[in-house]
From TrEMBL:
Its EC number is 4.2.1.44. Belongs to the IolE/MocC family. Pathway: Polyol metabolism; myo-inositol degradation into acetyl-CoA; acetyl-CoA from myo-inositol: step 2/7. Pfam families: AP_endonuc_2. Residues 38-293 form the Xylose isomerase-like TIM barrel domain. Its cofactor is glutathione; Co(2+); Mn(2+). NCBIfam families: myo_inos_iolE. The lineage of its organism: Bacteria, Bacillati, Bacillota, Bacilli, Bacillales. Gene3D superfamilies: Divalent-metal-dependent TIM barrel enzymes (3.20.20.150). GO terms for molecular function: manganese ion binding; myo-inosose-2 dehydratase activity. Keywords: Cobalt, Lyase, Manganese. The gene is iolE. This is Inosose dehydratase. InterPro entries: IolE, IolE/MocC, IolE/XylAMocC-like, Xyl_isomerase-like_sf, Xyl_isomerase-like_TIM-brl.
Length: 298
């Protein structure tokens, strides 16, 4: 399907230990997490809070298991903290990822975000940026993107539930307001469907700007309850709003079909945060690996 183009498969540690709620999977060790990723047939990982920050130590642990680092999340606060402070943190993050051999840097604007607030209803209180905030965001991202380019890397922007860049219109505004040379898009199926967007529209319109992919599925019945009962993002995650591809309500066949029509090369990262005490991480990783083989042929 992908005609020999290089697509590598990674899985995020968030199914084992959740960075947003460290109590989920608190007992799971770093070694168990990466060993099970390799056992399930993945080649890479993103960086979680239990990963050693010393590049040599991290590389050794990953090399032993045939894994490499695809990327890691960076929380930007361009709309609230300003460019200079954000850039200083970004450079340290970029340099760590560069040393680990990653080519893309995941960035999400967390100014005014409600994704980490346990009691704030997700669908009623998401932030909406004003003109000034949009200017701070797009200008700051262009500048962070040129810092990434200094190391031959790409900034991939993560649209996300509970943030100012969640909906199709907001993604469109971000894409139109930024320079394609500096700002690329991270395509996350789960966040688009959770928000009520059509994930195929974003692929059709922005395929040439997509340089990183998060494969997340959603349980539609849980999403309905989140809306009806006014749950927060974290409550939704705990209740199982997300799961691995092949276990929820998204049909990934057209998604893979459209990606295959473009020129995409890079990582597909399975990313499915749910409670590891309910959804055994190794079992779900194996399930995801099988589904991708069956539907994408990789
Ligand atoms: O890429 C991601 C990183 C997580 O920390 C986040 O909350 C999750 O939903 C996601 O898509
Ligand atoms: Co994601």
């Amino acid at each position: 399907m992908f005609n020999g183009r290089e697509i590598k498969l990674a899985i995020a540690p968030i199914g084992w230990t959740n960075d947003d709620m460290p109590e989920l999977g608190g007992e799971v060790t770093f070694e168990q997490c990466i060993s099970e990723m390799a056992l399930a047939g993945f080649q890479g990982s993103e960086v979680g809070n239990k990963y050693p920050r010393d590049p040599d130590q991290l590389r050794k642990a990953l090399d032993l298991r045939g894994l490499s680092i695809a990327s890691a999340w960076f929380s930007a606060h361009l709309t609230t903290d300003g460019y200079e402070r954000t850039a200083a943190e970004f450079i340290a993050h970029r340099d760590f990822l560069h040393e680990m051999g990653a080519k893309v840097i995941v960035v999400s604007e967390q100014g005014k975000s409600i994704q980490g607030q346990m009691d704030v209803p997700l669908f009623d209180h998401k932030p909406v940026f004003n003109e000034e905030e949009w200017a701070l965001l797009t200008d700051g991202l262009n500048r962070l993107g040129s810092l990434a380019a200094e190391k031959g890397m790409k900034l991939v922007y993560h649209h996300h539930m509970g943030t100012g860049v969640q909906t199709t219109d907001e993604i469109r505004r971000l894409m139109e307001g930024t320079d394609p040379d500096n700002v690329s898009l991270l395509y996350d199926t789960g966040h688009l469907v959770f928000s009520g967007e059509d994930p195929l529209v974003i692929l059709e319109d922005y395929m040439d700007r997509i340089h990183h992919v998060h494969l997340k599925d959603v349980r539609a019945e849980v999403v309905e309850r989140v809306k009806r009962e006014k749950w927060s993002f974290l409550q939704a995650v705990k209740a199982g709003a997300f799961t691995v591809p092949g276990d929820g309500s998204i049909d990934f066949r057209p998604v893979f079909g459209l990606i295959a029509e473009g020129a995409y090369e890079g990582w597909f990262v399975v990313e499915a945060e749910q409670d590891p005490a309910i959804a055994n991480p190794l079992e779900y990783a194996i399930k995801a690996r099988g589904y991708i083989r069956e539907t994408a042929g990789i």
